[in-house]
Amino acid sequence: HTFQKEGRNLQHFCREAIRHMRNLLIARVCGADSELIAATPDQRPAIAKAAALFSEEDLTRFFQILLQTDDDLRRKPDPRVHLEMGLLRLITASRLAPLEELLAELKSGAPVDTSSGTARAASSALRQAATPPSLPSFTPPSKVVTQSFAPAPAQPEASQQFASPSAAQDATPATTPEVKTPNGSKETLRVSGISQEQVAEIKSAIQAQQKFLGELVEHSSGWELEGAELRIYFPPEKRTFAEMIEGREPHERIRTVSSNVLGRAVRVCAKLDSVAAVTAAASGSQELRAQFERDPMVRSMLERFGGKITEVRSRQQEK
């Protein structure tokens, strides 16, 4: 509200936040001395200090939330509302990791090691609140054997009674692996002049050397090798990832890895998908939407609470 009263541009504010979050993520992954950080030498110590407060997973999640918010500001009406929603998602993003651990514990029926979670006080407090309900089924060693196995059949029932949209979304992957999403699965990646195995080997080598760069490459939708030129295609909405790969250091790293895997020197360039590829992606989204419309749990939710499905995204697109 204050920004609008002062006449400031909300998109400019969001892009500055993206630039700052990108610097934090690179500082966390590559160190504060990396050439990829767009900051002056006197700003780097403060960036390194701020990056140390978060994990790499948290910064990646924040970065993607800001990218989605910037896309909403450019494409949808009422930018103030979308900016506020994006900021709220940033505030509540720290709760995602403990909730994932809690859901995994409910499914497996065994306590989950939470030592790998985030170190924030809010996260630890949520884990402490979630731990006591699971203790009675495991702590009494003096009970008879039948009592120790009694909670086991109750676990699926408890998870089935989670009739919330998040639980329905979490339960659908059991039936969705057969659906091939254009940007989500490795099997449907478009390749030309290069095999799927070679692409997977290149991705694995990049991921082993630099995790952040490996995550960027995972968003690619097609690989094409023609002569001595290797083209990596990205969807139009992933333009930012393509531009980041074109940087000097990432570009050189991908070129070196690709040349080693292919056994010959190649040039690497990042390109955006053509209209035909976008149309194919839209058809894949329609197939995914049709599958969710046929899902009994989704239909039950719509009949009980009303409403309609406006947009369907694969799990990989949300990450």
Architecture overview:
- This is DNA polymerase III gamma subunit domain-containing protein.
- It holds the Pfam family DNA_pol3_gamma3.
- With 319 residues, this protein is α/β, with parallel strands linked by helices.
- The protein contains 17 helices and four strands.
- The chain has helices at 2-5, 10-30, 44-51, 56-75, 79-92, 96-108, 121-130, 145-149, 151-160, 165-171, 196-209, 211-218, 239-245, 248-262, 275-294, 296-305, 315-318, and strands at 190-192, 222-226, 229-234, 267-272.
- Strands 1-2-3-4 form a four-stranded mixed beta sheet.
- It is globular and about 60 Å long.
- Mean pLDDT is 72; it is low at 112-187.
Keyword list:
DNA-directed DNA polymerase activity, 2 domains, alpha/beta, Zinc Finger, Delta Prime, domain 3, globular, DNA binding
Count of individual helical segments: 17
Total number of beta strands: 4
SSE order: HHHHHHHHHHEHHEEHHEHHH
* Strand order of the biggest β-sheet: 1-2-3-4
Structural class: alpha/beta
- Nearest-angstrom radius of gyration? 23 Å
Low-pLDDT residue intervals, each spanning 5 or more residues: 112-187
Beta-strand residue fraction:
5-15%
Distance between the termini: 29 Å
Mean pLDDT level: 72
Report the helical percentage.
Answer: 55-70%
The main sheet comes to: 4 strands, mixed
Shape: globular
Number of domains: 2
